[in-house]
Amino acid sequence: MSLHFTDEDFLEAWKELDKPQLEGGWEFFTETMGVKIYRLYDKETGLYEYKVFGVLATCTPELCADVYMDLPYRKQWDGYVKELHEKDYDGHSAIYWEVKYPFPLSNRDYVYVRERRDVDVDSRKIWVVLAKSSPQSPLPEKSGVQRVNDYKQTVAMESDGACGTKERSACLPYRHAEGLWQLLKLLPEEQEMNTLGGKSHQSHEDCIFQPIVQ
């Protein structure tokens, strides 16, 4: 049984594969490389939450989920990783991740928990990965690095009916400038993540992956 996420959390994550939930102030932000991005502004915090919908044409959903969970491999291909590892803290596992930001922004770091579930729903196979900050994990903050204590991400994936992946993901929070930079780097990286990840795990899949550009 999960100590961090509920069955309802996973249900809410994959439901938007069928119908995006964009009521309540969500606005279309941009579309690129077959991916549509929406954002929601929080007046109290000045932060944006983003939702991303699209298709990764060269990677199966199972392989995408495997690569999402593969921290050692991410350190190989993601040039923005400063430090990334998973450890046990007081009986529960948490991930520490420091992300390199361009000057004049300070690096950001995250302490978070995550869980993956492979869900069968009415003859559909759906892969869901949830993550959120774990501020109770006893990991001290670093001087000069900004700790993000309200990080959250959900990713839901299923087959596009061919050899690719229909994906829905959401993440928060970012200020406008940070969000723009993160999205600009995330889109080509996500395609590369799945392309290179596909090559790394190719013995387990029948799809052929071609280079595209986390």
Automatic annotation (TrEMBL):
InterPro entries attached to this UniProt entry: START-like_dom_sf, START_lipid-bd_dom, START_lipid_transfer
KW Cytoplasm (keyword) present: yes
UniProt GO cellular component terms: cytosol
GO molecular function (one): phosphatidylcholine binding
Keyword terms of this UniProt record: Acetylation, Cytoplasm, Lipid transport, Lipid-binding, Phosphoprotein, Transport
SUPFAM superfamilies in alphabetical order: Bet v1-like (SSF55961)
START domain boundaries: 23-148
Pfam families registered for this protein in UniProt: START
Subcellular location as annotated: Cytoplasm
PANTHER family: PHOSPHATIDYLCHOLINE TRANSFER PROTEIN
Self-association state and partner proteins as the record states: Interacts with ACOT13/THEM2.
Protein name as annotated: Phosphatidylcholine transfer protein
Organism annotation: Salmo trutta
Gene: PCTP
